[in-house]
Amino acid sequence: MNRRLPGTLRKCSRLLVAPTPVQDATLTRFLSITHKLFERQECHVLVVGGGTGGCAMAAKLSSRLGSNKVVVLEPEEKHYYQPMFTLIGGGMKRLEQSYRKMGDVLPKKARWIQESALNFDPDKNEVCTSGGKTIKYDFLVIATGMQLKYEKIPGLVEALEAPKSNVCSIYSPKYVDNVYGCLRNTYRGNVIFTFPHCPIKCAGAPQKIAYISEHYFRKMGRRDNVNIMYNTSLPVIFGVKQYADALWKVAKKRNITVNVSRNLVEVRPQDSIAVFQDLVQPGKLYEEVYSMLHVCPPMTAPDVIANCKQLVNEAGFVDVDQATLQHKKYSNVFAIGDSASTPNSKTAAAAAAQSPVVFKNLMATIEGRPPREAYDGYASCPLVTGYSTCILAEFDYNLAPVETFPFDQAKERYSMFIMKKTFMPILYWELMMRGLWNGPATMRKVLSIFKPKSRK
Length: 456
Description:
This protein is about 30% helix and about 20% strand. By secondary structure, the chain is of the alpha/beta class. The N and C termini lie far apart (about 100 Å).
């Protein structure tokens, strides 16, 4: 045995030094996969999220900092203009009009990594990705938006995905196309619209689709056979009194029943029953039979954000200063849009107004200066009330109206409807996605000279 051992060792040595072609290919693949799994990258600014705020920030920052200084981490192939979903639900737009390819929207000077974030480590300035990368950054912009949680309501997903379903939702590209189909197939009975018991994006959308649907039934001559209800978990129809007063009048004129403090807790699709909890008397439940049910789903910050306790507040949103949008603990971290903890209404218009604040304050931080720009909580909600009218709500952190035009925006107007339907998508794609739209503040200043003193 001892005499044969050196030969055996020599054979093993030959195998290790000169592997066969098959072994060589296997080894190469193994090393390649291992390299990808543990790949480390570095960047000056990392933007996590390729939605409204993320694209706007990537455009602004890459334009200032130059090529390959900004990395965008975003897994999706498509970028949706989500404010159009309400119009799709009413049959006024098509789903294919609401999106563009992500690669066409993101700025060419930024580098796109088509993966999702799996873990944040702000103490090490690192983000781990779904593709096995570890990205080390100097500065971080979090723009991950909110996640839809349809599954939190028992029976809802089953109802949404059932063949010929009479349950629908404008909030997801997966379901929005079915909304108009539900309208066309509904001739009588209860038509119910819901608003969940949690923060959501575009808080006006659940009642916009209710008004559009009511108008549809009138146009089709079915209105007398349909009972329309708007069940909201909020104690009011809208948070800003000036617009709430106008919306109560719209609901009354259209004979829409508005039930406040009422939250959807279960859907029984086999019986077409929606179960609601009375939030004033939590033990009290209401069972409503529906012919059509439109659901605004519960929403939360993305799990990957909420799970990083160093970054978030108790509600799971990125814990930033509400004026500077800079993180309260990590000075090299900023947030924009729906994932931020700021107490504003979460809309695309809010992200537009936040974008110059984040940009200027981030550039100041990069250059070693204190951030001085302040976001005032501006948000806008074009409350479409039918196929030709809209109330343009604009307001700030204090829920005080901050109106751009020199007339009463609490009135239903055709001009505001045309702006919402036709001009806002152009503004979004051609200006905001290129980092060139910062909200209407400048326009408001110009138009203020035409406003009566009582409205300034």
